[in-house]
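Service request form, structural biology core

Requester: graduate student, group of Dr. S.
Request type: structure prediction, single chain
Budget code: on file
Notes: please return the result as C-alpha cells.

Sequence provided:
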Amino acid sequence: MNEWITAVNDVIWSYVLIVALVGCGLWFTWRTRFVQFRMVGEMFRLLTESAVNTVEEQVKEKTGKSRHISSFQAFAVSVATRVGTGNLAGVATAIAIGGPGAVFWMWIIALIGSATAFVESTLAQLYKQKHKDSFIGGPAYYIQKGLKQRWMAILFAVLITLQFGLSNNSIQANTICGAMLEAFGWSPVWVGGILALMALFIVFGGIQRIAQVSSVLVPVMAVGYLVLAIVIIVMNIHQIPHVFKVIVLDAFGVSQIAGGGIGAAMMNGIKRGLFSNEAGEGSAPNVAATATTTHPVKQGLIQALGVFTDTLVVCSCTAFIILISGLYQVPELNGIALTQSALQNEVGSIGPIFVAVAIFLFAFSSIIGNYYYGEANIRFITPNTKVMTIYRLCSGGLMVFWGAIASFELVWNVVDFFMAFLTACNLIAIVLLGRYAFRLLDDYRKQKRQGIKEPVFHRSQLPEIEDEIECWE
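Core staff response, request fulfilled:
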C-alpha cells in the first residue's frame, strides 16, 4: 500500500500541483502588485501592534469582558502549525531525497506563495461568520458563500479534516517519538500514549485555550531554536558562501550532490515547502478568520508574514546547519535523525537532546493547531456534538498514538496524498474569488494614502455580495 501511495503522489505532484502552485503564486503576486514585498513594513507594524493589544485583551478576558481572538493570537496559532516538523524533519527529508537544491525551491515557493497566503486569508476574513464569542470561517465558508457550491465546500471540509485533524497529527507524533528515541531511547509506545493524553486535554478546551497555549509556546520555541542556529551559523560563517553556491548550483542541476537531479530537487523542495508554510493549502485561513480586526486585509498581511517567518527564517536555519555538517550525503540519515546528527556534529552530545526538546514544542503546538482546523470544518458540516466528540478523540488521541508507532515513510506518504487534493480544491476557489481580495487590497491602500492609520471595511463597500457577507456591519 505504501508503494501505491508513493506512486500516486509522484504523479500528482510532478505534473499537477507544482504547476498550479507556482502559477497561482505568480498570478496573485502580479495582481496584488507584489504585496508580499511592497508591504512588509505594514506587516510588521500590524503584528507588533496586535501583540501589544493582545496583552490588554487577555486582561479583559480574565475579567469576563472579552473573549475575542486577536490578530496576534490567530497569527500564533497558524505559525504553530507551520513551524513544526516541516522545519526540522521536513527540510532534512527534502535535502536527503532531493539534494541541497531543494532548499532553493523551498525559498521560491515561499516568496511567491506568500501572495497566495495573503489572498486566502483575506477571503477568510471577508466571509467569516459569528460563532458564540468569536468568529469562524475558512475555505469551506468562502466556497459556500462566494461560489455557492455546497458540495465543494463539504469536500474541502472533509479533506482538511483528514489532512490536518487526523493524518497531519500523526506526522507530528511520529517525529516527536523519533526524536525522543534518538536522544533518550524512550519507547514510542509510551511517548505516544503521553502525547495523546496531553493533546486530548488541550483539544477539549476550545480555541481560546489553543490560542493561549500557542501564543506562549510559539515565541519560546522559535527564539530558542533560532538562537542556537544563529550561533552555529556564526561559528561557521566562512562556509556560508559555499552553502549558497551548493544550493543554487544543485537547484538547477549543475551539480547534483544528492538526490535525483533538478526534478527531484524541485518536487521535494516544493512539497516540503508547502507542508511547512502551508501557503495555498487552505489551512491558515481557518484561523485567520477567527481574528477580530477592522479590515480583512490586515489579517491577510499578517498571515503572509507567517510564510516568510516559517520558510525564509526557520527552514533556512535548519538547512544551513545540515549543509554545514555535510551529513546530508550519508544515505542512512533522513528526517529528524539527520537534523539531530547535524546538530550533534556542531555542538556535541547536547545537540540531539536539544532537538528532541525543540521538536516536542514545535510539533505539540502543531498538533493542537491542526486539531482546530478540523474542528472548524466539522462544525461547518454538522452541529452534532457527538460527531465533534468522536473527532476530538480521533484527532487528539487515536491518530497521535498511531503516528507514534507507524513507520516514517507511511505517515509522510499519507500526508502528501491528502495534501495534494486539499491544495487543489482550495486553489480553484481562491482563483475564482481572488478579485474580491484584490479590491479589498486596493481599498486598504487607498485609505492608507488618505492618511488613515487604521483602515476600516464595511460590507456595503462590496454591494454585489453584501448579502453574502455576515459580518462587517
